[in-house]
């Protein structure tokens, strides 16, 4: 048992057996002498690596009994994934506001700042998540990028965007379009982006695809290695405004970020 765990997961996993930290499916402790039947399960919880603290606050734009709307900073993931766990908007807000049932109704990329909506109660979670899943919320983003005088604006981009598991980048592929973005150039490299769909990294992919990669983007068009504790060059992409008809009351609501570049 020890040899197999060490071969597959490293010496740290084998050490967990010696420390009594590996369990069988029925809760029994696995020891060096344990004989397991074929196809049986054991549970080993890996230690999380130390996370770099994201040194930015999460301003609250609105809070009521059903929803919490915040102005997410750059570099803070929406929810736990991969190496980002404690340093995520969800975990920090649950802890700081003592809201154990808090859940994101949608997501923003870790590198994107701006308006982000959470549900406060389990009973209303489905209504708001469905609203976003059906594309009923209207989102407006601000971005900074290079200027190309040969491009004509406004423009609408439609393409098929796919992000495969294990890959940092999403890519455009031939096939039926599943992503649509309207781009307006407001002058001096400032752009207004309106996504009609919500594919992963959609705005970043579409801007890079026309030769206008968003300023500060470490992944598009090429991946650039950036230290985990380097917060000096945030992605110039802001979820600036969120509008929707409330799925519970039908009342028109809108929230605007107070951030700038």
TrEMBL record:
Transmembrane segments: none annotated. Residues 66-209 form the Pseudouridine synthase RsuA/RluA-like domain. Keywords: Lyase. SUPFAM superfamilies: Pseudouridine synthase. It catalyses: a uridine in RNA = a pseudouridine in RNA. One of its GO terms (molecular function) is RNA binding. One of its GO terms (biological process) is enzyme-directed rRNA pseudouridine synthesis. InterPro entries: PsdUridine_synth_cat_dom_sf, PsdUridine_synth_RluA-like_CS, PsdUridine_synth_RsuA/RluA, RluA_PseudoU_synthase. This is RNA pseudouridylate synthase. It comes from Mycolicibacterium hippocampi.
């Amino acid at each position: 048992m020890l040899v197999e765990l060490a071969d597959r997961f490293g010496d740290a996993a084998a050490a967990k057996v010696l420390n009594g930290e590996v369990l069988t499916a029925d809760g029994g402790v696995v020891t060096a002498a344990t004989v397991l039947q074929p196809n049986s399960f054991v549970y080993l919880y890996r230690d999380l690596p130390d996370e770099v603290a994201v040194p930015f606050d999460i301003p609250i734009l609105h809070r009521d009994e059903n929803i919490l709307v915040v102005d997410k900073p750059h570099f803070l993931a929406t929810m736990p994934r991969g190496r980002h766990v404690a340093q995520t908007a969800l975990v920090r807000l649950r802890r700081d506001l003592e809201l154990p049932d808090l859940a994101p109704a949608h997501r923003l990329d870790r590198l994107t700042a701006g308006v982000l909506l959470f549900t406060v109660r389990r009973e209303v979670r489905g209504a708001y998540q469905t609203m976003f899943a059906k594309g009923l919320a209207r989102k407006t983003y601000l971005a900074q990028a290079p200027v190309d005088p040969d491009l004509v604006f406004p423009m609408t981009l439609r393409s098929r965007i796919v992000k495969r598991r294990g890959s940092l980048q999403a890519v455009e592929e031939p096939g039926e379009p599943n992503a649509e973005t309207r781009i307006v150039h407001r002058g001096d490299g400032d752009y207004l982006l309106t996504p009609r769909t919500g594919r992963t990294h959609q705005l970043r992919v579409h801007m890079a695809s026309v030769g206008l990669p968003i300023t500060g983007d470490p992944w598009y068009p090429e991946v650039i290695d950036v230290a985990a504790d380097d917060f000096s060059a945030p992605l110039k992409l802001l979820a600036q405004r969120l509008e929707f008809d409330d799925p519970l009351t039908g009342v028109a609501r809108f929230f605007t970020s107070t951030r700038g570049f």
